[in-house]
Amino acid sequence: MALNFSIDPDIRKAATLPASFYRDADVFEALREKVFYRTWQWIGDDRKLAETGAALPFTLLEGFLDEPMVLTRDASGALHCLSNVCTHRGNLVVGAAGKTRKLICGYHGRRFDLDGTFEHMPEFGQTKNFPTACDNLPAFELRKWGPLLFAGLNPEFDFQQVLDAMSERVGFLPLEEFREDPSRHKEYSIKAHWALYCDNYLEGFHIPFVHDDLNAVLDYGDYETVLYPYLNLQIGYAGGSEIVFDLPEGHPDYGKNVAAYYYWVFPNTMFNFYPWGLSINLVQPLGPGRTKVSFRSYVYDATKLDQGAGSGLDKVEMEDEEVVEGVHKGIRSRYYKAGRFSPTREQGVHHFHSLLARFLSAD
Questions:
Q1: Is the N-terminal amide bond of 275 cis, ω within 30° of 0?
Q2: In the beta sheet, which residues pair with residue 68?
Q3: Three-state DSSP class for 297?
Q4: Of 58, 118, 176, 310, which is most buried with the most CB atoms under 10 A?
């Protein structure tokens, strides 16, 4: 199937991506190569590697990208994100998290420094033209924001511009003081295309129709969307006396009753800041009709938990899932081709579709 999707840059004229985008298995595979291999993913918290000599293996987007990787902190304290695949015969190098002085493959004893540099290989004394740069573990780009870590396999853009944009409004928050709360983590299985889940997240248009409780605490009339090159922000303002941010003087929103900052980072990650802390939503494709969504909670002010826009997140999720799964069924109709955008309420969805079309059309 041709991948030359096109979205008119004028939202007033534009149509959405066609139904075939969500239905076609070839498009789903192309998204893996053209979008996810060329963008960034949140990969966790650097405090899990607090000690020097630490190594933490993980799989990037398990069930979709399935890329074995390992985070290390070397003797100087520097962090590295490396391939966890031995450059000899492809065995996984690090099997479990722990502290180590070297990375040693358990198959044939190939040894690497914690920065991925090849050091030693038994029985290779007679091998010619060895070692070369190809014997080092591939290293991936890594960015840090507070304790949060981000990596890209072959990213098209510098993630620092994303972090700088988010810092414009939430940079006053002491991210290093946010503490992960596993008791609030959630995993959801959704019978729908991953992009439909993002479509739904990226507009507040549906809030009065789908989320009664959330609509009661947000001022729908003032709901605002701000666009950046590879992310966008939705600002939720309090509709009454709900819990809001205590914004410092000089802040872009100083004097306003902000209840939530909802950041979406292309292609599949949400950072939802509330007065109580942060909820990270990672949208993980599994198939054209299967998606896993993981919620990770970082608490800053526990006295504000379960109040205002940051409360009832599980109920909001269930309401969203019902709608998204309904859309996934609906777009299989032979009578639905594409829709139009609301110029006042769906700027974020238009932005998302424009990015997807551009990445898919790129060589």
A1: no
A2: 59
A3: strand
A4: 310
Terminal-to-terminal C-alpha distance of the chain: 15
Could you list the pLDDT tens digit for every one of the 363 residues in the chain? 457 899 999 999 999 999 999 999 999 999 999 999 999 999 999 999 988 889 999 999 999 999 999 999 999 999 999 999 999 999 999 999 999 999 999 999 999 999 999 999 999 999 999 999 999 999 999 999 999 999 999 999 999 999 999 999 999 999 999 999 999 999 999 999 999 999 988 986 667 666 667 666 666 567 789 999 999 999 988 877 678 999 999 999 999 999 999 999 999 999 999 999 999 999 999 999 999 999 999 999 999 998 876 677 778 778 878 888 998 999 999 999 999 999 988 999 999 999 999 999 987
**Dist. CA 95–CA 102, nearest whole Å:** 13
| This prediction's pTM | 0.93
Q: Are strands 139-145 and 258-265 parallel, antiparallel or unpaired?
A: unpaired
Two structure tokens written together for 363 = 């060589």
261 phi-psi bin (left φ>0, alpha ψ -120 to 50, beta other): beta
Q: Both tokens of residue 353?
A: 């579709």
Strands (E), the chain: 40-45, 54-60, 67-73, 79-83, 98-99, 103-104, 111-112, 118-120, 139-145, 148-152, 179-180, 186-190, 224-227, 231-237, 258-265, 269-274, 277-287, 290-299
Tokens standing for 297? Answer: 């909670």
Residue 219 token pair: 């001022």
| Domains of the chain, first to last | 42-152 (2.102.10.10), 180-361 (3.90.380.10)
> Comparing C-alpha atoms, which of 188, 222, 182 is closest to residue 317?
188
Please state, in angstroms and rounded to a whole number, the distance separating the CA atoms of residues 24 and 17: 12
Encoded amino acid at 332, one letter: R
Rounded Cα–Cα distance for residues 222 and 207 (Å): 13
C-alpha distances (whole Å) from 323 to each of 207, 208, 210, 297, 311 are 11, 13, 8, 24, 20
